Amino acid sequence: MASNASPASLPRPRVPWAVVGVTPFMAFAVLFLILPTLFLVVGAFQDNEGGFTLSNLGKLWTPTILSSYWISIKVSVASAVIGAAIGAFIAYAAVSGGLPRWIRPTIMTFSGVASQFAGVPLAFAFLATLGRQGLVTIFLSSVFGLNIYAQGFNLLSFWGLTLTYLYFQIPLMVLIVTPAIEGLKKEWREAATILGASTWQYWRHIAGPVLLPSFLGAALLLFANAFGAIATAYALTGSSLNIVTILLYAQIRGDVLHDQNLGYAIAFGMIVITGLSNLCYILLRVRSERWLK
Protein backbone atom coordinates (compact mmCIF):
# COMPACT_ATOMS: atom_id res chain seq x y z
CA MET A 1 0.00 0.00 0.00
CA ALA A 2 1.39 3.39 -0.93
CA SER A 3 2.22 5.69 1.92
CA ASN A 4 -0.11 8.65 2.36
CA ALA A 5 2.56 10.73 4.10
CA SER A 6 3.25 13.97 2.32
CA PRO A 7 6.83 15.13 1.67
CA ALA A 8 6.36 17.92 4.21
CA SER A 9 5.59 15.40 6.96
CA LEU A 10 8.71 13.30 6.36
CA PRO A 11 11.41 13.73 9.04
CA ARG A 12 14.12 16.10 7.97
CA PRO A 13 17.71 14.97 8.33
CA ARG A 14 19.32 16.53 11.35
CA VAL A 15 22.40 18.65 10.92
CA PRO A 16 25.32 16.84 12.61
CA TRP A 17 26.35 19.82 14.70
CA ALA A 18 28.87 17.72 16.62
CA VAL A 19 30.67 16.94 13.37
CA VAL A 20 30.52 20.58 12.34
CA GLY A 21 32.00 21.58 15.67
CA VAL A 22 35.06 19.34 15.38
CA THR A 23 35.64 20.04 11.67
CA PRO A 24 38.01 23.00 12.28
CA PHE A 25 40.07 20.88 14.67
CA MET A 26 40.21 17.95 12.24
CA ALA A 27 41.20 20.26 9.38
CA PHE A 28 43.92 21.81 11.54
CA ALA A 29 45.22 18.36 12.57
CA VAL A 30 45.31 17.14 8.97
CA LEU A 31 47.02 20.24 7.58
CA PHE A 32 49.56 20.87 10.34
CA LEU A 33 50.12 17.44 11.92
CA ILE A 34 49.20 14.47 9.75
CA LEU A 35 50.32 15.77 6.33
CA PRO A 36 53.68 17.16 7.60
CA THR A 37 54.32 13.90 9.44
CA LEU A 38 53.63 11.87 6.30
CA PHE A 39 55.90 14.21 4.35
CA LEU A 40 58.74 13.62 6.82
CA VAL A 41 58.22 9.85 6.82
CA VAL A 42 58.30 9.67 3.02
CA GLY A 43 61.36 11.93 2.86
CA ALA A 44 63.23 9.72 5.31
CA PHE A 45 63.15 6.91 2.73
CA GLN A 46 64.20 9.04 -0.27
CA ASP A 47 67.56 10.13 -1.64
CA ASN A 48 68.32 13.51 -3.15
CA GLU A 49 66.88 12.37 -6.49
CA GLY A 50 63.64 11.15 -4.94
CA GLY A 51 64.44 7.43 -5.20
CA PHE A 52 63.83 4.90 -2.46
CA THR A 53 66.71 4.31 -0.07
CA LEU A 54 67.45 3.03 3.42
CA SER A 55 70.77 4.83 3.70
CA ASN A 56 69.24 7.74 5.61
CA LEU A 57 68.07 5.42 8.37
CA GLY A 58 71.47 3.73 8.36
CA LYS A 59 73.15 7.08 9.04
CA LEU A 60 71.15 7.40 12.26
CA TRP A 61 73.55 4.90 13.83
CA THR A 62 76.58 7.14 13.40
CA PRO A 63 78.20 8.21 16.70
CA THR A 64 77.28 11.91 16.34
CA ILE A 65 73.59 11.29 15.74
CA LEU A 66 73.34 8.57 18.39
CA SER A 67 75.02 10.92 20.86
CA SER A 68 72.50 13.67 20.07
CA TYR A 69 69.61 11.27 20.63
CA TRP A 70 71.12 10.09 23.90
CA ILE A 71 71.65 13.63 25.22
CA SER A 72 68.07 14.57 24.31
CA ILE A 73 66.74 11.45 26.02
CA LYS A 74 68.73 12.18 29.19
CA VAL A 75 67.57 15.80 29.32
CA SER A 76 63.97 14.72 28.68
CA VAL A 77 64.08 11.98 31.32
CA ALA A 78 65.68 14.25 33.93
CA SER A 79 63.23 17.11 33.37
CA ALA A 80 60.28 14.71 33.22
CA VAL A 81 61.13 12.84 36.44
CA ILE A 82 61.99 15.96 38.45
CA GLY A 83 59.10 17.94 36.98
CA ALA A 84 56.63 15.11 37.61
CA ALA A 85 57.71 14.69 41.24
CA ILE A 86 57.63 18.40 42.09
CA GLY A 87 54.46 19.03 40.10
CA ALA A 88 52.63 16.15 41.80
CA PHE A 89 53.48 17.51 45.26
CA ILE A 90 52.35 21.01 44.28
CA ALA A 91 49.09 19.67 42.83
CA TYR A 92 48.38 17.59 45.93
CA ALA A 93 49.09 20.56 48.20
CA ALA A 94 46.78 22.76 46.13
CA VAL A 95 43.94 20.20 46.11
CA SER A 96 44.16 18.46 49.49
CA GLY A 97 46.72 20.36 51.50
CA GLY A 98 44.31 22.52 53.47
CA LEU A 99 45.77 25.73 52.04
CA PRO A 100 43.80 29.00 51.79
CA ARG A 101 41.25 28.97 48.99
CA TRP A 102 42.94 31.68 46.94
CA ILE A 103 46.13 29.65 46.52
CA ARG A 104 44.64 26.94 44.30
CA PRO A 105 43.22 29.22 41.56
CA THR A 106 46.45 31.21 41.68
CA ILE A 107 48.55 28.07 41.16
CA MET A 108 46.31 26.82 38.36
CA THR A 109 46.34 30.19 36.59
CA PHE A 110 50.12 30.47 36.83
CA SER A 111 50.51 26.86 35.65
CA GLY A 112 48.34 27.51 32.62
CA VAL A 113 50.51 30.47 31.63
CA ALA A 114 53.93 29.05 32.57
CA SER A 115 53.34 25.71 30.83
CA GLN A 116 53.14 27.62 27.52
CA PHE A 117 56.06 29.96 28.23
CA ALA A 118 59.01 28.64 26.24
CA GLY A 119 61.25 29.47 23.32
CA VAL A 120 63.41 32.59 23.05
CA PRO A 121 61.62 34.54 25.86
CA LEU A 122 62.24 31.71 28.34
CA ALA A 123 65.88 31.39 27.31
CA PHE A 124 66.39 35.14 27.68
CA ALA A 125 64.70 35.11 31.09
CA PHE A 126 67.06 32.43 32.40
CA LEU A 127 70.13 34.11 30.90
CA ALA A 128 69.10 37.36 32.58
CA THR A 129 68.55 35.52 35.86
CA LEU A 130 71.19 32.77 36.03
CA GLY A 131 73.64 33.72 33.31
CA ARG A 132 77.20 34.73 34.16
CA GLN A 133 76.00 38.32 34.51
CA GLY A 134 72.49 37.38 35.59
CA LEU A 135 70.62 39.03 38.42
CA VAL A 136 70.69 36.05 40.78
CA THR A 137 74.29 35.23 39.92
CA ILE A 138 75.49 38.74 40.74
CA PHE A 139 73.32 38.87 43.88
CA LEU A 140 74.76 35.62 45.27
CA SER A 141 78.28 36.75 44.47
CA SER A 142 78.01 40.26 45.94
CA VAL A 143 75.92 39.44 49.03
CA PHE A 144 77.01 35.91 50.00
CA GLY A 145 80.33 35.68 48.17
CA LEU A 146 79.10 32.62 46.30
CA ASN A 147 80.19 32.30 42.69
CA ILE A 148 77.97 29.53 41.33
CA TYR A 149 79.97 29.30 38.11
CA ALA A 150 83.17 28.79 40.07
CA GLN A 151 81.38 25.95 41.86
CA GLY A 152 80.74 24.19 38.55
CA PHE A 153 77.30 25.49 37.58
CA ASN A 154 76.84 26.35 33.91
CA LEU A 155 73.52 27.38 32.43
CA LEU A 156 74.71 26.33 28.96
CA SER A 157 75.05 22.69 29.97
CA PHE A 158 73.01 19.54 30.54
CA TRP A 159 71.76 20.56 33.99
CA GLY A 160 71.32 24.17 32.91
CA LEU A 161 69.02 23.11 30.08
CA THR A 162 67.20 20.68 32.38
CA LEU A 163 66.64 23.47 34.92
CA THR A 164 65.26 25.70 32.16
CA TYR A 165 62.90 22.99 30.96
CA LEU A 166 61.57 22.57 34.51
CA TYR A 167 60.03 26.03 34.25
CA PHE A 168 57.34 24.69 31.91
CA GLN A 169 57.49 21.01 32.88
CA ILE A 170 56.40 21.53 36.50
CA PRO A 171 53.32 23.66 35.66
CA LEU A 172 52.35 21.19 32.93
CA MET A 173 52.49 18.36 35.46
CA VAL A 174 50.28 20.36 37.83
CA LEU A 175 47.65 20.80 35.13
CA ILE A 176 47.72 17.14 34.10
CA VAL A 177 47.72 15.43 37.49
CA THR A 178 45.30 17.73 39.35
CA PRO A 179 42.16 16.05 37.92
CA ALA A 180 43.51 12.65 38.99
CA ILE A 181 44.11 13.86 42.55
CA GLU A 182 40.63 15.38 42.61
CA GLY A 183 39.28 11.97 41.61
CA LEU A 184 40.41 10.39 44.88
CA LYS A 185 37.17 9.84 46.75
CA LYS A 186 36.97 10.91 50.39
CA GLU A 187 35.04 7.72 51.13
CA TRP A 188 38.16 5.68 50.38
CA ARG A 189 40.18 7.54 52.99
CA GLU A 190 37.36 7.38 55.53
CA ALA A 191 36.85 3.65 54.97
CA ALA A 192 40.59 3.00 55.31
CA THR A 193 40.73 4.99 58.55
CA ILE A 194 37.71 3.14 59.99
CA LEU A 195 39.37 -0.18 59.19
CA GLY A 196 42.49 0.92 61.05
CA ALA A 197 44.77 1.75 58.12
CA SER A 198 47.55 4.25 58.71
CA THR A 199 48.34 7.10 56.33
CA TRP A 200 51.22 5.07 54.86
CA GLN A 201 48.97 2.05 54.32
CA TYR A 202 46.32 4.22 52.67
CA TRP A 203 48.84 5.59 50.17
CA ARG A 204 50.58 2.24 49.74
CA HIS A 205 47.49 0.16 49.02
CA ILE A 206 44.76 2.58 47.84
CA ALA A 207 45.73 6.07 46.70
CA GLY A 208 49.15 5.12 45.35
CA PRO A 209 47.97 2.35 42.98
CA VAL A 210 45.08 4.54 41.80
CA LEU A 211 47.29 7.54 41.04
CA LEU A 212 50.26 5.59 39.68
CA PRO A 213 48.95 5.21 36.10
CA SER A 214 48.12 8.93 35.97
CA PHE A 215 51.52 9.84 37.38
CA LEU A 216 53.43 7.61 34.97
CA GLY A 217 51.33 8.76 32.03
CA ALA A 218 51.93 12.41 32.90
CA ALA A 219 55.67 11.76 33.22
CA LEU A 220 55.67 10.20 29.74
CA LEU A 221 53.87 13.25 28.38
CA LEU A 222 56.49 15.49 29.98
CA PHE A 223 59.20 13.37 28.37
CA ALA A 224 57.65 13.81 24.92
CA ASN A 225 57.17 17.52 25.56
CA ALA A 226 60.85 18.02 26.41
CA PHE A 227 62.13 15.68 23.69
CA GLY A 228 60.54 17.74 20.93
CA ALA A 229 61.53 21.18 22.26
CA ILE A 230 63.96 23.15 20.12
CA ALA A 231 63.41 26.90 20.41
CA THR A 232 64.40 27.13 24.08
CA ALA A 233 67.45 24.89 23.69
CA TYR A 234 68.64 26.62 20.53
CA ALA A 235 68.22 30.12 21.97
CA LEU A 236 69.88 29.12 25.25
CA THR A 237 72.79 26.88 24.23
CA GLY A 238 73.12 27.38 20.47
CA SER A 239 75.26 24.51 19.20
CA SER A 240 77.19 24.00 22.46
CA LEU A 241 74.84 21.16 23.50
CA ASN A 242 74.33 18.64 20.71
CA ILE A 243 70.72 17.64 21.27
CA VAL A 244 68.80 15.96 18.48
CA THR A 245 66.42 18.84 17.73
CA ILE A 246 69.34 21.24 17.12
CA LEU A 247 71.04 18.62 14.94
CA LEU A 248 67.79 18.21 13.01
CA TYR A 249 67.58 21.96 12.45
CA ALA A 250 71.18 22.01 11.22
CA GLN A 251 70.52 19.20 8.73
CA ILE A 252 67.40 20.79 7.24
CA ARG A 253 68.18 24.52 7.47
CA GLY A 254 71.92 24.69 8.16
CA ASP A 255 74.59 25.90 5.74
CA VAL A 256 77.26 23.37 6.75
CA LEU A 257 75.45 20.15 7.71
CA HIS A 258 72.72 20.54 5.13
CA ASP A 259 71.30 17.10 4.24
CA GLN A 260 67.55 17.44 4.01
CA ASN A 261 66.71 13.76 3.70
CA LEU A 262 68.95 12.85 6.62
CA GLY A 263 67.08 15.52 8.57
CA TYR A 264 63.83 13.80 7.64
CA ALA A 265 65.27 10.51 8.92
CA ILE A 266 66.26 12.16 12.21
CA ALA A 267 62.73 13.56 12.48
CA PHE A 268 61.35 10.08 11.74
CA GLY A 269 63.35 8.68 14.66
CA MET A 270 61.96 11.41 16.91
CA ILE A 271 58.43 10.61 15.72
CA VAL A 272 58.92 6.96 16.68
CA ILE A 273 60.20 7.82 20.16
CA THR A 274 57.54 10.44 20.94
CA GLY A 275 54.85 8.25 19.36
CA LEU A 276 55.68 5.35 21.64
CA SER A 277 55.73 7.71 24.62
CA ASN A 278 52.32 9.14 23.74
CA LEU A 279 50.88 5.68 23.10
CA CYS A 280 51.95 4.53 26.56
CA TYR A 281 50.47 7.74 27.99
CA ILE A 282 47.10 7.04 26.34
CA LEU A 283 47.04 3.45 27.63
CA LEU A 284 47.90 4.56 31.16
CA ARG A 285 45.31 7.33 31.03
CA VAL A 286 42.59 4.90 29.97
CA ARG A 287 43.50 2.65 32.89
CA SER A 288 43.51 5.51 35.39
CA GLU A 289 40.13 6.80 34.19
CA ARG A 290 38.57 3.41 34.91
CA TRP A 291 39.62 3.72 38.55
CA LEU A 292 38.58 7.34 38.93
CA LYS A 293 35.07 7.04 37.46
From TrEMBL:
The keyword Transmembrane helix applies. InterPro entries: MetI-like, MetI-like_sf. The keyword Cell membrane applies. The chain crosses the membrane at residues 17-45, 66-95, 107-127, 134-152, 158-181, 202-223, 229-250, 262-284. One of its GO terms (biological process) is transmembrane transport. It is found in: Cell membrane. Residues 69-283 form the ABC transmembrane type-1 domain. Pfam families: BPD_transp_1. It is a multi-pass membrane protein. Coiled coil: none annotated. GO terms for cellular component: plasma membrane. CDD domains: TM_PBP2. Its main location: membrane. Keywords: Cell membrane, Membrane, Transmembrane, Transmembrane helix, Transport. Belongs to the binding-protein-dependent transport system permease family. CysTW subfamily. This is Acriflavin resistance protein. It comes from Pleomorphomonas diazotrophica.
